[in-house]
Amino acid sequence: MSGGTRIVVEIEDEEPREFVVDPRAAGRSLADLLAEHGFPLNTRCGQRGLCHGCEVQMRGGAVSVGPDAASAPATVQACRARVMDRAHVVLRIPARSRIEHRPQVIDTFRIDVPCAHLPLFEPAPGGRDTAFAVDLGTTTVAVLLIDLATGDVLSRTGGFNEQIRFGDNVLTRIDAARSCEALAAMQFAAVSETISPLLLRACDRAGRAPSRLAGGAIAGNTTMLHLLTGVDPSPLGVAPFVPCFIEGKRLTASGIGLAAGKNGDALSPDTPLQLLPGIAAYIGADIVAGVYATGMIFDEAPSLLVDIGTNGEIVLQSGGRLTACATAAGPAFEGSGLRCGTRARDGAISGINLTLDPFRVEAETIGNIPAVRATGICGSAYVDFLSAGRRCGFLLESGRFDPAAWKLVPPGDRIETDGTRALRIAGEARISEVDVAVLLQAKAAIGAGIETLLEAAGIEAGEISRVYLAGGFGMHLNVGHAIAAGLLPGFREEQVRVVGNTALAGTLLALLDRTALDEMESLRSRVEVLELNLQEDFEDRFVDHLMLP
Ligand code: FES
Questions:
Q1: Given the CA of residue 41, which atom of ligand 1 is nearest to it?
Q2: Ligand 1 atom 3, closest CA
Q3: Phi/psi at 185 (nearest 5 deg)?
Q4: What is the mean pLDDT of the chain?
Q5: If you average pLDDT over residues 418-422, what whole number do you get?
Q6: Domain check: are 360 and 448 in the same one?
Q7: Residue 43 CB less than 6 A away from ligand 1
Q8: What's the gap in Å between 43 CA and the centre of ligand 1?
Q9: Helix (H, G, I), strand (E, B) or coil at 477
Q10: Do 240 and 164 fall into the same domain?
Q11: Is the C-alpha dihedral spanning 60, 28, 319, 491 positive or negative?
Q12: What is the pLDDT of residues 288-329, one digit of tens each?
């Protein structure tokens, strides 16, 4: 290129702007040139030609795309386009291709992809300018409120899923839903006893009335979304495990009986709700949201998503191919089923260190609350306990307390009830041998699941460029301790990135940028599901992983 190229850029509601490309910039992508001149595009796949985030519409002139020329009118991926010598190009950047929200880290999750500002719900008449994202987990539920005009997160809140009284795992709830009354009661528990109060609390914290809500997006595992919509989930409990629906669904608040607020301040019954798409009976919309939010579909080298919730779901990306499996981890790392377990929240013990000589237990809490006043122990602290307990010799390989080490514990911190030994961590918070056994079951399910999935793909742990470790136990996890405890077998610390609640992160992305929803929908056909119970070695691996390393 010797004479420079003129590029006219049109953006909705703005005057066209023009710039001239320096001839020395020959060979650079159109996306780079646009970014350099103040038009950064939504290059969420890292300019690898794998997404629709950088598409621009050619209104005049031509560009080259590989060996070919693309002449107006045409839509081109700007990351693959190069400008030609002395050309005059007119192009339009649609709103969905303009980057508005960069990758971000907030205290419950990390988002690794940028997105456009193209809200799923347009602000509606009557001041409906707010939207909500819900991650409907089997054990816990998280809600975010966002401002539709700015995309800012206004408030967040979370709590236990009130359906828990029908069973702490999906199988017991599927079983319980066999009667119409129980199915209706579970829908009521999710909608009216869980989401509605959380929504009210989130609105209250944000200082916005529920009447300002223009819509909500909801992710959850396939069973949770069946129960939320009052659809009988029994096909999910028997082979061949065929969901009644798996695609994204648009509903209204009144359609599922969701109400919040009173009189003139109440949520409008016609408020639209978007359920995110899932993949299969045990790889749900929560995982699709997570795969999208981590950006793993755009990774060049193999990568792995490990989502530790009530089920452990694992997704491997290798050469653009996605394989997933689900493993029954149980809710231990979400703080359920353990004597002092709690979610990661202010006042919870989030870190533990243990030494034997001298004997000492140190506890860290979220929010700097004194440890003696801790409200419970969250997943990251249990992981620390497994790692530190094993390292110092307090825990045997089997997870039992070493008898000699037990004698070193000050008498006031040894709690023995019904033949079960528990160690006081701080105040009323304690960890028992039964708790450790429950944690080891969860750890074994995850560890064996990871190994089985990798082996089926013929990939070693060391070949994985990045492990995205997701889960409601959030951003407090010490990765080195998770590896030492055997939760991530065979990985090195530098491979692992803690990404928190990616289901919520993906749901937020779908709210901010409706094109994210299209990409999530397209993922459905790209993921191959591996049934762990049909894999020969899974059972043996599970038993091996019941031990601490
Ligand atoms: S950034 Fe161009 S296709 Fe993804």
A1: 1
A2: 49
A3: -65, -35
A4: 90
A5: 86
A6: no
A7: yes
A8: 5
A9: coil
A10: yes
A11: negative
A12: 999 999 999 999 999 999 998 778 899 999 998 999 999 988
Indicate whether residue 47 lines ligand 1 (CB < 6 A).
yes
What does the alpha-carbon distance between residue 194 and residue 164 come to, in Å, rounded to a whole number?
11
Question: Which ligand 1 atom lies nearest to the CA of residue 43?
Answer: 1
Residues 84 and 165 grouped into a single domain: no
Q: Nearest-5° angle of CA 141, CA 479, CA 400?
A: 85
CATH, residue 527: 3.30.420.40
Closest ligand 1 atom to residue 54 Cα is 2
According to the model, what pLDDT value does residue 339 have? 83
For ligand 1, say whether the CB of 50 is within 6 Å of any of its atoms.
yes
Q: What is the DSSP letter of 207?
A: T
If asked whether residues 254 and 311 sit together in one domain, one would say no
Q: Is 53 in the pocket of ligand 1 (CB under 6 A)?
A: yes
368 exposed, middle or buried (CB, 10 Å; 0-12, 13-18, 19+)? exposed
Same domain assignment for residues 261 and 403: no
The domain boundary residue, chosen from 401, 418, 433: 433
Ligand 1 within 6 A of CB of 51: yes
Ligand 1 atom at minimum distance from 80 CA = 2
What are 438's two structure tokens? Answer: 């429950």
Calpha distance 149→515 (Å, rounded): 17
Q: What domain count does the chain have? A: 4
pLDDT > 80? residue 21: yes
How far is Cα 238 from Cα 233, in angstroms, rounded to an integer?
10
Euclidean distance between CA atoms 328 and 535, whole angstroms:
15
Q: Which domain holds residue 529?
A: 299-331+438-507+523-544
Residue 314 to residue 446: CA distance in whole angstroms:
8
Question: pLDDT by residue (tens digit) across 238-254?
Answer: 988 999 999 999 999 99
Give residue 9's pLDDT. Answer: 95
CB-neighbour burial class of residue 423 (10 A; exposed 0-12, middle 13-18, buried 19+) = buried
Cα of 19 to ligand 1 centre, how many Å?
Answer: 22
Lowest mean pLDDT among 45-59, 139-153, 212-226, 420-434: 45-59
Where is average pLDDT lowest: 42-56, 187-201, 221-235, 249-263? Answer: 42-56
Q: Cβ of 526: how many Cβ atoms within 10 Å?
A: 13
Mutate which of 79, 93, 98, 519 for ligand 1 pocket (most atoms within 8 A of beta carbon):
79
What is the distance in A from the centroid of ligand 1 to the CA of 280? Answer: 28
Q: How far is the CA of 394 from the centre of ligand 1 (A)?
A: 52
35 CB within 6 A, ligand 1: no
**Is 291 domain-assigned?**
no
Q: Is the pLDDT of residue 1 over 50?
A: no
For residue 232, report the distance from its CA to the centre of ligand 1, in Å.
Answer: 40
**Domain contains 282:** no
